[in-house]
Amino acid sequence: MVENVLITGGAGFIGSHLADALIAQGHRVTIFDNLHPQIHGPEQKAPEYLNKQARLVRGDMREQSLVQEVLTNQTVVFHFAAYTGVGQSMYQIQEYLDVNVQGTAVLLELLSQHKHQVHKVILASSRAVYGEGAYECSECGIVYPEPRSLKHLQAEQWEVHCPACNQPLIPIPTPEEKPANPYSVYAISKQTQEQICQLVGETYHIPTVVLRYFNVYGPRQSLKNPYTGVINTFITRLMNGKAPEVYEDGQESRDFVHVSDVVQACLLAMEKNLANGQTINVGSGEQTSLLQAATVLADLLGGPAPIITGQFRAGDIRHCYADIRRASTLLGYQPRVSFKDGISDLLAALAGQQWEDTSYIPFQELKERGLTA
To answer: Is 186 annotated in the active site?
Structure first.
């Protein structure tokens, strides 16, 4: 069945890859995007990589009349439009909540109050809603710990301990059942998006799927945007002859998932009725330390070895990687791209390009507000 698909925020990193895949399958795609200068540069031009067969409508999710117009005749909505900087959200609080929550509310209110043909909504959410990942204690079993205290971070006590017996905890794959425990305004905004999308979807009988992306990387991720993710921060430093800087002791870990695997999950979520009403992790299911990631990049780019700074950011988690069993069971999802192959793919796409190192900007802004040390 050919679908009319609306991708909000579709001119960005993940949305543009999804647009390519949908068009390749014969679907009709509309992209609604404000071409924000933090991502697309001060000229706010549509990126060259954007598929010419997609219809591009420029606008803001908070502009109800424009959103209503682009919803006309759509049958599937992928809602990607959002601000995504975890640290930045801690001092641009109103903007993050306005764009992420109010923008989502506009979309859902239109779907609840006007006739439409939409039969599925898929929300791009984030592993940030979990806060710390899941852990296991040798004495107490599975533990979902609270954030590390400032006192512990200042004492360089990086690892997480059991709140009951104080034994060191071992990170384990984080399942969707783990209670949400957001540590940032961004994470709170994503949790709110999840809740209102699922509630409105259930109330108005619009099948809705929440996909919780872990740390997505790959070609087209904006190097103009210093808030775009740690992989690109490392790359821009290496491109400028500087060593990548790793916080804490470098052993903090994440789940890095290639954009093509995320697109695979999106397509399956659109197709599979088993996904309706579900919240599903999308990751690689593998744990990679930030020092390991920085070392792989330095080796492939022939740059200086990573520096472990011993600095920290208030609110940073220690470990979180995905339990992907639900994605496998409900969607048939299986990650296909290894971290090393994915990084090689990203660097090949960046070959010959040069970007100014702006990685110092987020750190400086956090430092001025007492949010890092």
So the answer is: yes
